[in-house]
Amino acid sequence: AMDALVRQGRKVEVLEAYEQVGASVALPAPTLLAVASAAEGLKRHDLAQPAYTRLLREHPGRPEAEKAEFRLAHVLLATGRDADARAVWRDFLARYPESTWREYAEPRLAAIGPAEGTAAPAAETPAPAPAAPPAAGPDGLPAVEHEPSAETGWTF
């Protein structure tokens, strides 16, 4: 039933269905990413964070995991959990060194600053600013949109 709602693009209903079934049913990675993205887009961080975390835990090798980890750090930062966002972005950068989102994660990680009780890294020559970054969403981060999922048909 939830997959049908995802395919129809009914984001509010997807979140309502997810709240009812929660962790009680197995969901494929594209569906979990759709749920988390819908929740984040609707500023339902209380649903986005656990949905992204669940996707990472249940589907770590799936392509959706890269997007989920990147967006999870943003959700954590948006909810004032700077230390957790810092840890997730560090993990993201280590796990996905070639990610197209690296240029967004690195400055956000630097803006959060070092963990409490640690010294700031030595000053380095700043890297040149990237030319013409991809289109960003309203939050300044790259949009999570991609081609419709083969499994769900939903573009998110």
What can you see in these coordinates?
- The chain is mainly α and 156 residues long.
- The protein has 7 helices and no strands.
- The chain has helices at residues 2-7, 11-21, 29-41, 45-58, 64-78, 82-95, 102-112.
- Helix 3 (29-41) runs antiparallel to helix 4, helix 5 (64-78) packs antiparallel against helix 6 and helix 6 (82-95) runs antiparallel to helix 7 (102-112).
- The longest helix is centred in the middle third of the chain and has 15 residues, at 64-78.
- The protein is globular, with a radius of gyration of 16 Å.
- Mean pLDDT is 79; it is low at 119-134 and 144-156.
How would you sum up the major sheet?
Answer: none
Termini separation: 18 Å
Low-confidence blocks of residues: 119-134, 144-156
Class inferred from helices and paired strands: mainly alpha
Number of helices: 7
List SSEs in N-to-C order.
HHHHHHH
Helix coverage percent of residues?
40-55%
How many beta strands in the DSSP annotation? 0
**Overall 3D shape:** globular
* Mean of all residue-level pLDDT scores: 79
Strand fraction equals under 5%
Rg over CA atoms: 16 Å
Keyword list:
mainly alpha
Produce the secondary structure layout:
Layout: H1 2-7, H2 11-21, H3 29-41, H4 45-58, H5 64-78, H6 82-95, H7 102-112
Helix pairs in contact: 2-3, 3-4, 3-5, 4-5, 5-6, 6-7
Concise account of the structure shown:
The protein has 156 residues and is mostly helical.
